[in-house]
């Protein structure tokens, strides 16, 4: 087996920073995990862990060129979706334009597999059942869901034009490994109905899906929903973090679309062999993996 170089973008994000150490653990002798990061401080941290670091911004063509040099596979985790810097222009620049440019340049560089990390929010409103990969993408233009949908649509064009080995993973709400994602959003969840469900995936399960999607042959052009089983309700999320939920205040609240964000993972199970280590957030809590 020949040595392989895997480039990860968005390595300092919540997904990337938990994915890279696992990729380093799983690599074969002689393989390289490379990260594109924006600061020298981040580069030093990843280099100390065993990754090769390239300092630069994903929106910079020269940085992309340097990062892609000699890469065999790309995992594009980079995204802008929350916080003071998440303007419409910034989301379009990172979530759509830079991802598409990186894919086109990856094809020109001979990268064998371009793994694009997307979101289940691209589906938009539900269709009366869990969303499947071949369903139309209904996310409204703009914002995080809209720019990720636009990126997917343009990546399909890049693949059609170049033969890029594109594989897409659509993720739900990601949690675990000390990620404060649940706790940070509890104030927003407090205004929801107690029985509203949220599709979720543990970072360990996202990583196993990435590892399988990077190396399984014959899946170029395929898209996979990645999620645990069933999701968790608002009430259960508050219980997991040890905070009380005002049930009485929520009794009059309704769930407008009970299927919004809920996905069918059958294709990932059949084709990737995806089997969640933590099928529910409650299972992760019992295992001490939150």
Structure, explained:
With 290 residues, the chain is α/β, with parallel strands linked by helices. It has a single domain, classed as NAD(P)-binding Rossmann-like Domain (Rossmann fold). It is 40% helix and 16% strand. The chain is built from 12 helices and 11 strands. The strands form 3 sheets. A 7-stranded parallel beta sheet has the order 3-2-1-4-5-6-10, sandwiched between helices. Strand 2 (32-37), helix 2 (40-49) and strand 3 form a beta-alpha-beta unit. The longest helix has 21 residues, at 88-108. The chain is globular, with a radius of gyration of 19 Å. The mean pLDDT is 95.
Total count of strands? 11
Largest β sheet strand count, sense and barrel closure: 7 strands, parallel
Quote the CATH topology: Rossmann fold
CATH architecture: 3-Layer(aba) Sandwich
N-to-C CA distance = 36 Å
Let me know the average pLDDT. Answer: 95
CATH superfamily: NAD(P)-binding Rossmann-like Domain
> What is the string of SSEs from the N terminus onward?
EHEHEHEHEHEEHHEEHEEHHHH
The helical percent reads 40-55%
Strand coverage percent:
15-25%
Instruction: Please state the overall shape, judged from the principal axes of the Cα atoms.
Output: globular
Order of neighbouring strands in the sheet with most strands: 3-2-1-4-5-6-10
- Which CATH class applies here? Alpha Beta
Overall domain count: 1
Low-confidence stretches: none
Report the radius of gyration as a whole number of Å: 19 Å
Secondary-structure class? alpha/beta
Q: Count of helices? A: 12
